[in-house]
Amino acid sequence: MSAQLIDGNETAKQIKDELKLEVETLAKHGIVPGLAAVLVGNDPASEIYVTSKAKNCKKVGIYSEVIRRPAETTQQELYDLLDSLNHNPRISGILLQSPIPRHLDEFAACLRIDPIKDVDGFHPDNVGRLLIGEPRYQSCTPFGVIELIKRYNIELKGKEVVIVGRSNIVGKPLAAMMMQKWPTTNATVTMCHSATRDIFAHTKRADVVITALGKPEFLRGESIKDGAVVIDVGINRVEDSSIEKGYRIVGDCHFESCAAKASWITPVPGGVGPMTIAMLLTNTVMAARLQAEAMGAN
Ligand code: NDP
C-alpha cells in the first residue's frame, strides 16, 4: 500500500474532545445542548444508530432523549411530537431517524421540524443556505468528509473532484460544499450517477474521488489516477463465511487496489463513518449556541 490513511476514528475523537470543552464552557453560561432522536417503528439498525448517538451525546456532555413511537404512529401524531420538541427549551436539535414506516410522509415530517433545530441539515431552509454559501447546519456525512479533508490539510482549491452518487443526504450536499468559494473547498466538481455514460472515464482523471453509491468495491485501483485522494462513504455488508458473524463491512472502493495507487484513502470501517456522528454533535452544540443567542437578542 502506498496511500496514507485518513483516520476517521482518530479525527472524530479529536472533534468530540474539542466539543466536550465547548460544552463545559457553555455550561458556565447556563447553556446545555440537547438532542432528541425520534425513532418510529422497530428497525433494528435504526435502534443501534440512535443508541450510539445517545451514548456519544453523553460522552461530550450533551443532554439526549430517544423518543420511541410504534410503527402504527399516524402522520398527525408524528407532527404533534415534532411540534412539542420544536417548543421544548431543553431540546436544541431534533433528528428523525430514517427510515420511518412507509405510510408516513418523511419529507413532510422533515418540513415540520423547526429549521433552527434541524441538526441533520435536511430541511430545505438549511439545504438552501448551504447552496448559496451561507450554511447553518450542514448534512452530517458530507460535513464529515469536508472536515476530514480539512484536518488532513488536503488542498481542494482548483482540484478535479468526482463524486459518485447524488443522494439528498450525501452526494448533492457534498457537491454544494465542494464547489463553494471557501478556503477549504473551491474545487471543480463532477457528479456521477446511475445514468452517467462512462463513470470510470471521470474517476480516472479525478484528483479526488468520492464514492457514495452503496455498491460493494465498485471502484478499483485501475479506475483512479496515481496519487488521487480516495474518500469512500459507502458502507456495505457482504457475506463472508470465513468470519464467525458471516459477513464483513466493505466500502464502495476496493481498498487494496485503490490504496496501491492513491496518495490518501479513507478505510471502511473507520473512515467517514465515525465522522458522521461527530458532525451531528457539532451541529447540536452549534444549535444550542444559536438558540441561546436568539433568546438573548429578544
Ligand atoms: P442512495 O441509495 O440514496 O443513493 C445512491 C446514489 O448512487 C444514487 O444517486 C444512485 O444514482 C447512485 N448509484 C447507484 N448505483 C450506481 C451505479 N451502479 N453507478 C453509478 N451511480 C450509482 O444512497 P446513500 O447516499 O444514502 O448512501 C450511499 C452509500 O453511503 C451507502 O453505502 C450508505 O450505506 C453509505 N452511507 C454512509 C454514511 C456514513 O456515515 N459513512 C451515511 C450515509 C450513507 P441515481 O440517483 O441515478 O439512482
List the helices and strands and how they pair.
Elements: E1 4-5, H1 8-28, E2 34-40, H2 44-60, E3 63-69, H3 75-86, E4 93-96, H4 106-112, H5 124-131, H6 140-151, E5 160-164, H7 171-178, E6 188-192, H8 199-204, E7 208-211, E8 229-232, E9 236-239, E10 247-250, H9 255-261, E11 264-265, H10 273-297
Parallel strand pairs: 1-11, 2-3, 2-4, 5-6, 5-7, 7-8, 8-11
Antiparallel strand pairs: 9-10
Helix pairs in contact: 1-10, 6-7, 6-10
Residues 141, 164-167, 169-171, 192-195, 199, 212-215, 233-236, 272-273, 276 line the site of NADPH dihydro-nicotinamide-adenine-dinucleotide phosphate.
Give a written overview of the molecule.
The protein is of the alpha/beta class and 298 residues long. The chain folds into two domains: 30-116, Rossmann fold, CATH 3.40.50.10860; 140-273, 3-Layer(aba) Sandwich (Rossmann fold), CATH 3.40.50. 41% of the residues lie in helices and 16% in strands. The chain is built from ten helices and eleven strands. The strands form three sheets. A six-stranded parallel beta sheet has the order 1-11-8-7-5-6, sandwiched between helices. It has a three-stranded parallel beta sheet with strand order 3-2-4, sandwiched between helices. Helix 7 links the parallel strand 5 (160-164) and strand 6 (188-192). Helix 1 (8-28) runs parallel beside helix 10 (273-297) and helix 6 crosses helix 7. It starts with a strand and ends with a helix. The model has no long low-confidence stretch (mean pLDDT 97). NADPH dihydro-nicotinamide-adenine-dinucleotide phosphate binds at residues 141, 164-167, 169-171, 192-195, 199, 212-215, 233-236, 272-273, 276.
